[in-house]
Amino acid sequence: MNRLWWQAPCETPDGDTESSALAHQAQLTKPTGSLGQLEAIAVRLAGLQRTVKPELDRLWITVFAGDHGVVAEGVSAYPQAVTVEMLRNFVQGGAAISVLARHLGATLEVIDLGTAYPYDALSGVQSLALGPGTANLCQAAAMSEAQLDAALGAGRAAVERAKTNGAQLFIGGEMGIGNTTAASALGCALLGVPAARLVGPGTGLDDRGVGHKTKVIETALARHRQATAPSEALRCLGGFEIAALTGAYLACAQAGVPALVDGFISSVAALCAVRMNPSVAPWLFYGHRGAEPGHAAVLAALGADPLLELGLRLGEGSGAALAVPLLRQACALHGEMATFAEASVSDRPA
């Protein structure tokens, strides 16, 4: 496999279908624009799916998990053992994303890219074992080139499975103690901003903890200041699961599968994907604006208009999953509302 596969062109939305969908919207029994973002979403999905009346019945969710060597710097309120414990919770159906996937009728898969603690095989968890978590990004590059390639490829493979199974929408989730530190460091490198601009409490740090986390990230940014290319910044400062999400978003755009992006960590991965291949951008929708302080800055850099703002900071793909009903209702309204002619309702004069 070409290790630079992510540079290949992405699919192009169908402008003619989008125009036809927009014309269809104009004939529905409502004032033009009265459904706000829902109208634009339906029209955009029409162009992506190449059908005037898009549908989102088949949903695929992949949760990527991995541990982080930077946890050794004391940046998390939770122990690293939680990553493995949550793998078990995902497949046993007790995690938030597990509940949401059930209620959405979605396919849910869980991929362990490399955890710090060994565990007995778990039914429903695909273990790729890229390493016992990443290296401590304060002391070395988080990943080797081989690990980065494998993590990006894991995201691509998940999208290929989704595409083969007819998925109409892809959601990537993440789990990994310490991953807000890695995501903040990567986001700072991509945006060229100091750590204090993006750093937040993650899973619950107090002000002192946030201050320490900020210093840790500044140390990492100084060490890897030569990593200016987006892919190199990802290798030096990211995590296995962040790289897998990046690979998934790149692969979605190349395969013609719309993706719904979750919270801060997923949005940093989306920013990295867009920086690596700008033609990814039209294929990404954004589920919500989360409580992590850096999320707004990353969304602004992406020009994103998120669907929800509920103060979420869980991850796992949960915020994106919560936004799925809105996307589905946008499609239903676009596809099922009567036109003025069908309902014998007078349209406004031309």
From TrEMBL:
**E.C. designation(s):** 2.4.2.21
Tell me which family the UniProt entry assigns to this protein: Belongs to the CobT family.
Report the record's Gene Ontology biological process terms.
Answer: cobalamin biosynthetic process
HAMAP family per UniProt: CobT
Going by the record, the broad EC class of this enzyme is: transferase
Gene behind the chain: cobT
What is this protein's function?
Answer: Catalyzes the synthesis of alpha-ribazole-5'-phosphate from nicotinate mononucleotide (NAMN) and 5,6-dimethylbenzimidazole (DMB).
**Key words, A-Z:** Cobalamin biosynthesis, Glycosyltransferase, Transferase
This entry's Gene Ontology molecular function terms read:
nicotinate-nucleotide-dimethylbenzimidazole phosphoribosyltransferase activity
Catalytic reactions of this protein = 5,6-dimethylbenzimidazole + nicotinate beta-D-ribonucleotide = alpha-ribazole 5'-phosphate + nicotinate + H(+)
Q: Which organism is it from?
A: Pseudomonas matsuisoli
Pathway(s) served: Nucleoside biosynthesis; alpha-ribazole biosynthesis; alpha-ribazole from 5,6-dimethylbenzimidazole: step 1/2
Q: Which PANTHER family match?
A: NICOTINATE-NUCLEOTIDE--DIMETHYLBENZIMIDAZOLE PHOSPHORIBOSYLTRANSFERASE
Q: Where is the active site?
A: 316
Instruction: State the name under which the record lists this protein.
Output: Nicotinate-nucleotide--dimethylbenzimidazole phosphoribosyltransferase
